[in-house]
Design a protein that fits this description.
alpha/beta, Rossmann fold, 2 domains, 9 helices, elongated, binds flavin-adenine dinucleotide
Length: 332
Amino acid sequence: MAEYKGIMVYGEIVEGKLSSITTEILGCGRRLADELKEELSCILVGETLGDAPKKAIAFGADKVYTAEDPLLKEYQTDSYVAVMEKAVKDVSPRVLLLGQTSVGRDLAPRLAFRLGGTLSMDCMELSIDPATKQLQQTRSVYGGNARATFTSEIFPQIATVRQKAMTPLACDESRKGEIAPIKVELDPAKIRTKVLETVKEEVVGIKLEDAQSVVAGGRGIGGPEGFQQLEELAKVLKGAVGASRPPCDNKWVPDTMQVGLTGKIVTPELYIAVGLSGASQHIAGCSGAKNIIAINKDPEANIFKEARFGVVGDWKQVLPAFTEKVKELLAG
Ligand SMILES: Cc1cc2nc3c(=O)[nH]c(=O)nc-3n(C[C@H](O)[C@H](O)[C@H](O)COP(=O)(O)OP(=O)(O)OC[C@H]3O[C@@H](n4cnc5c(N)ncnc54)[C@H](O)[C@@H]3O)c2cc1C
């Protein structure tokens, strides 16, 4: 039976660069590998990988396995699963970490089945049990109302990790590591689907996930027109506009603006929550914000329990005055 050892991270490359979730899980993987006193490896798959393997070392990996082939130009289930299944069988890591991205969501369950391992999706915390050396995987359950920690005695233990849940290490180009190319043997006949077109999400201004100030609106905004006022404040703060689920479901704003359990995770310095109640599923997406300011007409709204500052009142009256004051302060 294979001896399972070390932590392996599946790295994603977006527009030629390591994705931010990859640097986050490398930071987490480094911590876990140090606790186990074992190796942290990273596997990168693509047509050409450029300097991504070196970057993976700079972000914490001891060893980077590279799989390069024209058939791996973009993510495709059959080819990527085949390459990953072989690589994980050869390396036998005790833990395999992937991002909770569209790729991670597709790849992880298929690998868990093929490798006979276990899987926890969308983990928010990972640690090693010092007694058993097993991975403790914490994720939210019951629609975001509780958290549960899972572990198993079966290897490999596979986990996908929520974006922004982990902190990357500082990039250290002087860090030393090994780059090990993997021989890729793919049968084109076995690749059953092909990517016809890739459509890039259009972002005007700053990306919601990267913004340091987010102005988020909820059902209380009442319609798409109200969001124009949120946009004005976001512009003054050089930030982005987000939303709770109802404005997205009602098509007042695009789905890409949803923050929460089934939306985006944001960790800005400032999160201004306007006309939203602060349901646990929404808070799951913004609890990492440094400061939450709530504007809500209901003094009992849950958002006030999460907020550092709060204004009880109708946002239609509060927001224009708030925006004017911010403009004045920033100008002075
Ligand atoms: C599995 C699951 C996943 C989910 N995922 C998400 C998710 O990712 N993101 C998410 O947001 N939700 C999610 N939800 C939905 C979530 O449970 C809540 O229903 C939702 O967040 C409520 O949105 P809201 O706060 O905008 O609306 P409401 O709860 O209806 O709150 C509206 C608030 O606006 C206030 N208000 C009304 N008028 C004004 C005014 N004029 N001035 C000031 N305040 C006013 C009200 O006092 C109230 O507090 C999910 C639910 C489930 C079951």
